[in-house]
Write a structure and sequence with these properties.
The protein is an alpha/beta fold. It has 13 helices and 15 strands. 38% of the residues lie in helices and 17% in strands. It is globular.
């Protein structure tokens, strides 16, 4: 385990010596598999980034796998690493700009480069916290406050209504007071599932819904009024990120707020999303949108336009813990997405516990320096990448 409490070297001199990315996987047992708009989950992939300074401080980050975990890791190891090795690890903005100018600006904002940059950026923030002995939330200007959490992640999928209601009940037993259900099947089955869960949990539990970009306008026209009646807090990604016309049109079908952002990259994409008035809730993912540095810029945009900020987070404990720190330093009471999967080895074994749900249904940031979790490097070595898609149809 890499110990976040260990602080070595001079915080004034933090030279990046190495950047290493690890593509890791583990299979999902058939009885634990979840089906939703992305398909049936058969394995979990992740890309873990380790940045080491010449003074011996190690920072950890997560770059979202992008359904191409080996390619993302290879890009980091062979290209992005060369851009930042030798830089001051405390200069997170400078490192961000170096990658942006060196890899993105002249080639277009390629998704793979943004994902890779996100993992490096997160690791650099981890280093800064460890060098100063501060938890990330404090480094970002926040305080140790309660963050409302909802049960999400790869869970609560396309089960029969009665089975889904049972899973929802188990989430409540773990302390959650809000749940996100997976839609995008058929309008009739989607509505039946939400109705069953609402009947089972009552009106005091907050329900969200995520269609995973699977809806047509005709689907949304049928589902949105039902979600209004059932008091659903938001409908997440009903359409693909580039179908801005559909978002604008479907907002007239009812009152339920629309949420999006986990598949939008950098402040530039979010600026367009805001200008078009397409959504009410922004959901940047720290491991996807350009890291903590860029997510903070998106948060400023959200605050300036009066939009709710609820980051997406569902793969490893690194991103989960970092997201809680991030939320603790933002305005408002944005929700944290807690992974409600029965078994996620990237949450339970690869790192020490990234969060716990309190009696109030909230999470709180960790107090150890940096992101605050320890990484089991033996786990990384023992779980090489598994080829093939993580979700199948």
């Amino acid at each position: 385990m890499n110990d976040p409490q260990m602080v070595t070297g001079d915080p004034a001199e933090l030279m990046i010596d190495r950047v290493d990315a690890f593509a890791v996987s583990f299979p999902i047992a058939k009885e634990e598999s979840v089906t939703f708009g992305a398909g049936r989950a058969v394995k979990r992939d992740a890309v873990v980034v380790r940045v080491t300074t010449r003074e011996g401080i190690v920072g950890w980050g997560e770059a979202h796998h992008g359904r191409a975990h080996t390619a993302i890791a290879e890009l980091i190891n062979t290209t992005l690493a060369d851009l930042v090795v030798g830089m001051d690890a405390a200069d997170v903005v400078g490192a961000w700009q170096r990658i942006y100018r060196g890899q993105l600006a002249s080639m277009g904002t390629g998704t793979a480069a943004v994902l890779g940059m996100s993992g490096i950026d997160m690791a650099l923030w981890d280093i800064r916290g460890k060098a100063l002995g501060w938890p990330l939330y404090r480094l970002l200007g926040g305080r140790a406050r309660a963050i409302p959490a909802y049960a999400g992640g790869v869970a609560l999928g396309w089960q029969p209504p009665e089975a889904l209601a049972g899973e929802a009940g188990r989430c409540l037993e773990h302390g959650y007071r809000a749940l996100k259900l997976r839609l995008g099947d058929t309008p009739a089955r989607d509505i039946a599932r939400v109705q069953a869960v609402r009947a089972a949990v009552g009106d005091d539990i907050t329900l969200m819904a995520d269609a995973n970009t699977a809806y047509s306008l005709a689907d949304a026209r049928r589902v949105v009024p039902a979600l209004d009646e059932l008091g659903v807090a938001w409908l997440e990604e009903p359409f693909t990120p580039d179908d801005r016309r559909a978002y604008a049109t479907a907002r007239g079908y009812g009152r339920v707020p629309f949420a999006a952002g986990e598949n939008h990259y950098t402040r530039f994409a979010f600026t367009r999303l805001i200008e078009e008035g397409a959504v009410d809730i922004l959901q940047p993912d720290l491991s996807k949108t350009g890291g903590i540095t860029e997510a903070a810029r998106v948060a400023a945009l959200a605050a300036a336009h009066g939009l709710w900020l609820c980051p997406h987070s569902s793969m490893t404990g690194l991103n989960m813990a970092a997201s809680i720190h991030f939320l603790a330093a933002q305005e408002g009471d944005g929700y944290f997405e807690g992974d409600a999967s029965l078994r996620n080895r990237f949450r339970d074994e690869m790192v020490t516990s990234p969060f716990s749900i309190g009696a109030d249904g909230c999470v709180r940031p960790l107090e150890a320096p940096g992101i605050g979790v320890m990484v089991n490097e033996e786990f990384l070595a023992a779980h090489p990448p598994i080829p093939g898609p993580a979700y199948v149809r």
